[in-house]
Amino acid sequence: MRIAFAGLATSHPFTDARTVARRAELVVWEEDAVRLARFAEEHSAATVVPTLKELLAAEPDGVVLTVPTPRTAEALGPVLEAGAPCFVNKPAAATRAGLRELDALIAPVAERVMSGSVLRFAPGFAGRRVDPAEVLAVRATVRHDVGLWATGYNPWQDDPAEGGGTMVTMGIHGVELLVALLGPDVRLVGAAGATRHYGSLRSEDTGVMALQWGNGVPGTVEILGVTEEESYTVTVHTRDAAETIVIQGGDDVLRGLGYEGTIEAFLAMVGGAPSPVPWEQTRAILDVLISAREAVPPS
């Protein structure tokens, strides 16, 4: 089996490759020489190619796509034309225009594309079910430090007009978990953001979103980008109790945070299974995030 890594724009493909390398031959394309050298050093057996066209000419069985968010559609088009199933690292879009581009590309082949937060495949969350009729309200709290952006790392991620900033890039984790539980019939009610610590950011380091599902259930997503510890918490309130689900890396981050589960789901797609994450859900998540970004001007 041959898996292609199209772009190394964030930390995720480096993490993904550690799982994929146990099962498949790697082919990689990346325009940044430093990132490419780091990948090649870790995966010396990987085949390096100079262009996306040559990557696809290698006839990969599947593609992990991680380019800067504004370039996702530009790169995804040729991948889908080549016929390979594709895992698009999050977020697939951060603007309304970007989402429209994805709609046009993905709608005809939705079962062959997967995207979103790895957390839905974390062992502590995967397979969780709730009865929406019993739910009073839900809350997701995302604790993931964004201090690296304050040093100038990957400035496009912190740019609200390109990567969406903290509201989108970190907020996706919370929205994804709630949509995985309650479904895609959801809309943004309101959002707010603030810079509480990292003053050099172009986006915010703290945010909140209010959501509501079509059946009336309200939800809240809290985003804390100033934190010593990475963790993700979902609370489901019912008449009788409040169930809390905590997702942490623990001793095995790849497994604990869902990276391994995500790649296993993607490799199942390579084997012929449909995407385990319906595009209807992914689109709803991106729509909420983009609406939040539109509602909160840069700080």
Structure description:
With 299 residues, the protein is α/β, with parallel strands linked by helices. It folds into two domains: 2-118, NAD(P)-binding Rossmann-like Domain (Rossmann fold); 120-253 and 277-295, Dihydrodipicolinate Reductase, domain 2 (2-Layer Sandwich). Helices cover 35% and strands 24% of the residues. The protein contains twelve helices and twelve strands. The protein has helices at 12-20, 33-42, 52-57, 72-82, 96-106, 147-150, 155-158, 165-169, 171-182, 253-256, 259-270, 279-295, and strands spanning 2-6, 25-29, 47-48, 62-65, 86-89, 113-116, 135-143, 186-194, 206-213, 218-224, 231-238, 242-247. The strands form two sheets. Strands 3-2-1-4-5-6 form a six-stranded parallel β-sheet, sandwiched between helices. The chain has a six-stranded mixed β-sheet with strand order 8-9-10-7-11-12, covered by helices on one side. Helix 5 (96-106) packs antiparallel against helix 12 and helix 9 crosses helix 12 (279-295). The chain is globular. The N and C termini lie far apart (46 Å). This is GFO/IDH/MocA-like oxidoreductase domain-containing protein. InterPro entries: Gfo/Idh/MocA_oxidrdct_glycsds, GFO_IDH_MocA-like_dom, NAD(P)-bd_dom_sf. Residues 134-237 form the GFO/IDH/MocA-like oxidoreductase domain.
